[in-house]
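Hey,
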Amino acid sequence: MRTPAIAPGGLRLYTTEHVREKNQTEEFVSEIVVESLCSLLPKRIQKLGEVAYNLWWTWHPEAQRIFQRIDPVLWEEVYHNPVKFLRHVPRKALSDAARDRRLLDAYDRMVAEFTAYMSGRENGNGKPWFQSYPNAWPARKGPVAYFSFEFGLTEALPMYAGGLGILAADHLKEASDMGVPMVGVGFLYLQGYFRQRITEDGWQEADYEHLDFEQLPIIQVYDAAGDPLVLCVELPGRCVYFNLWKAQVGRVPLYLIDTDLPENAPQDRVLTQRLYSPDPDTRINQEMVLGIGGVRALRELKINPAVWHMNEGHPAFSTLERVRELVKQGMDFEQARERVRQSTVFTTHTPVPAGNDRFPKWQIDQHLNGFWNELGLTREEFMALGDDEGAFGMTPLALRMSAKANGVSELHGQVSRAMWQWMYPNQPVPISHITNGVHTATWLARRMRRLFDEYLGAGWYARLDDPATWQLINEIPDDELWAVRKHLKRKLAQFMRERARAKWVTHSQHPVQTIASGVLIDPNALTIGFARRFPTYKRATLILRDVPRLLRLINDPARPVQIIYAGKAHPNDEPGKRLIQELYRVIKNASTAGRMVFIEDYDINVARYLVQGVDVWMNTPRRPYEASGTSGMKAALNGAINFSVLDGWWREAYNGKNGWPIGEDKSYDDLEEQDRVDCESLFNTLENEIVPLYYDTDDDGIPHNWLKWSKESIATVAPRFSTRRMLKQYVEEMYAPLINQPAERASGEALKV
């Protein structure tokens, strides 16, 4: 193979010809891309290039700190993107780093941990869980294919809008930690999700930025000829072509579809431009490309999954593509359908219309005309697969094509069964529940982890879903836990001040907006966090039902209260945007004295500071529309205490000693009455329980009784609401039973490829 040219700065230039000469595999392309980045670095720290292209660093703070220590200013400027960082960091900074003994010691420890992790040795903590799981299936049966419309892996890859994407990313990270064979499939969005801008009047405006894929921690997939792999999905009158990019999530690959190719028509190039298009034609085309194209991508990569897991109904067309493959090989439709069902898992989420796409049948005619012929069906039989009371629904299609289906909390399972009972007259609805969890290492503050390392015993992370592990929380001295909590609150306050300063120097912000962004926050005052998407059912403005009472609460000179808000409404959700405006107008009013804050452009980075830095996590959804929620789990992990409506996960977690409820565990027919009762409960609990408990301190300013609740919150939430427990349930209740079922009902599709 000819020697690659050397560009200025030492970058090796691999051309298509170099790749062809090697008759490369996907792994070879990955190697040369990583090598190219490594070649920019001093030999002593070249492993940073390999780490940068593996999203393992997103849940290992010590790895992130190494990049930060090399050039703290640039690390913030590139928004924590290590690939872009290493390509732009000055040579002198790299040379200095290669001579910094303390940095090199940290680097060596990180490299040793990364190498052990990727080899499956777990750095002294034994083998990954799956290797010792009694019902583990052999590698020859294939991985779990996990399809999702969004993945919230890191703020540097804005391919997520909210909790669905964060959950999907945490699912992959936990699969990597546990050694569960898995592959992810999703979209690579050219503009990601929108950047939020709040006007002086409180109106949300959306800005979009084009991502430079070459600067991201992802690698393009090539074919055997050395060209970017191009696949296609047939749409009416045309073929939509797409490339694939791979994000390596620890030991789990995630393949991302990109339709922004010059071969495509303009309306097809934008299919992977933005998340959640409001245009129904764009949406159905997106879902066809994700479902059908995702199956074809895995086939082309010679990946034959043992189980296919659909996260929400968006990828449900994947089931029809898999049936089509089997029918083409000679099966009749019913045989093929049952074969596909026996290898399919479906997780349903939000029980509101926005989470359950429905298309009129004429639109199905327009976009899938003739597809039924390839399945051996009539049009009427095809439409019946997705029948949703006259429309074609993606959730009904997913339910009919899955052997296993689940909601994401106990109450949500009940709600889902009631919601879809019409599909199963006079019989039980086959929807169970597996309550969501969070990936502990991603969301746990570094200082909190150090505290846990000291008091929870060696190897606690390997036992994090064991409640007994967390009883040792009570061994942590109150003064040490309080010192960490105060440190995290100061970090949050500093974060808000620096963001406000950066905006102020651009001359693009009115002074009152600077106050509203948190510059007057007091790290010593009781601080409540409320951060999430802003659909109306989240009731972000519930507390505004009694503004005079609110002002008395927050402005108590002896016991002040601060409330920090963050969140986005979908760009086309006018009611949601009006909620933000209503809230913002109160926040910027001088009567709040800067004690109410709205942090603009909520994302993973903002969420990390909030869940780690607030004292109380407040959640006010209209019960029972909160499928699960996970932000409160992240806050509890870091010592915050939950204060929430008894909906979703909190209904299961609340025990009377680890947080507070808002309202009662009941449903209402009268929504106005529900709002009135919940608002009254909210204020009564704040005034009579939460505020007095927080400000009950000893002579050293330590609130011992508060910390007792904080420890109870950690001990009860951390093990039970982790993705470790969650993924074990998926493996034991969903994946393994399908994969290990008797031969006559074998889940494998045994395709001739």
